Amino acid sequence: MKIGIVGIGSIGGTLARKLSAAGHSVAIANSKDAKSVQAFADEIGATAADAKDAVAGADLIILSIPLPAVSDLPEDLFDAVPQNVPVIDTGNYYPGMRDPQIAEIDAGEVESLWVSRQIGRPVIKAFNNILAYSLAELGQARGTPGRLAIAVAGDEPAHKALVSDIVDSIGFEPVDAGTLAESWRQQPATPAYCCDYDADTMRKALTQARIGEAPKTRDHLLTQYGSLDHSPTHEDFIKLNRSANPLASM
User: Fold this and answer.
1) Of 12, 25, 81, 243, which sits with the fewest C-beta atoms within 10 Å of its C-beta?
2) Cα–chain-centroid distance for residue 81?
3) Which of 101, 18, 106, 26 is nearest to 66 (CA)?
C-alpha cells in the first residue's frame, strides 16, 4: 500500500517507521521541504517528499500534526486525492501546553470534526489515544492476551475497516469508537486516552466518557505532571491518566 504521512513527530514518525518496516511504500513530509526529512526517510526506508507529493497517489494518508497547523496546510493539498482515500487524523488539542487557542474547539466542537472542516473531507480519528512509547514498543501479535487497543472513529465504513486493518497489522487491537462526532470520547483527558487498555477495557472507557468533563481533567493533569519531582516516565503517564479517570465497574 502507498501511504503518505504529513508530520513526523513522535506519533507520525513512529507510524512511518512501523509501516515502512511492514512493507508499505511510505512517503513522509513535514511543514518544510523534502530535504528536511531526507535523513529520516533514508533511515527507515521511506521516500522524502513535500506535503503535496506525499499525498499524491496515496492509498492512505496520515495527518500527524498539531491541530493549529492544520489550517496552515496548502488549500489545494487534497484537490487531486480521490474521495475513496482515507485520511487519518492522529492529532490532539493541547491549549495552554503546546497549542494556541482554537475558538471553535474551546466552544465545544469535536476536534476531528474541526479538522475535517478545515481540510474539506472526512477523516478517521485514530492513533491519537496511545502514547508514542506504547506505539513503538508494546505492539503484540493478534490473539495475544491483553493486547493493547487503539480507538478508531469515523463515518465511512470502508475507511474505518482499512484503518482498523492497519492498526491490527502493527500490533494493536482496533476498537470501533463510533462516528466522528463521537470521537470526543477519545480526546485528551478522557477515560480512553493514553491508558494502555486492552480492547474490552477500552470499550468500557469509551462508554464512561462524559461530555464536557475532559477539559477540566486535562488542566488538572497538567498540574499533576508539573508537580512530579523527576522527568515523568511512561509508567508515570499511564498511572496519572488512569487515576484521573478511574473506571466504574459495569
Assistant:
1) 243
2) 21
3) 101
Question: For position 192, what pLDDT does the model report?
Answer: 98
**Residue 193 pLDDT grade (very low, low, confident, very high; cuts 50, 70, 90):** very high
For the chain, give the longest Cα–Cα distance: 52
User: How far lies 176's CA from each of 11, 74, 81, 163, in Å?
Assistant: 20, 31, 25, 11
pLDDT interval class at 201 (50, 70, 90): very high
Q: Tell me the average pLDDT across 148-173.
A: 98
Q: Which residues contact 14 (CB under 8 A, 6 or more apart)?
A: 132, 135, 136
Q: Which one-letter amino acid corresponds to residue 58? A: A
- CA dihedral of 114, 238, 150, 86, whole degrees rounded to 10: 30
How far is 164 from 60, CA to CA, in rounded Å?
12
Cα–Cα distance for residue pair 223/216, rounded to 1 Å = 11
Q: Name the helix (H) or strand (E) containing 48.
A: strand 47-48
| pLDDT, tens only, 126-149 | 999 999 999 999 999 999 999 999
* pLDDT value at residue 235: 94
Distance CA 122, CA 33 (A): 26
Kindly tell me if the per-residue pLDDT of 250 is higher than 70: no
List CB contacts of 207: < 8 A, sequence separation 6 or more: 250
- Long-range contacts of 136-139, Cβ-Cβ distance < 8 Å, separation of 24 or more: 136/14, 136/17, 136/18, 138/171, 138/196, 139/18, 139/170, 139/171, 139/172
Q: Are 4 and 29 in contact (CB under 8 A)?
A: yes
Residue 56: how many CB atoms within 10 A of its CB?
A: 15
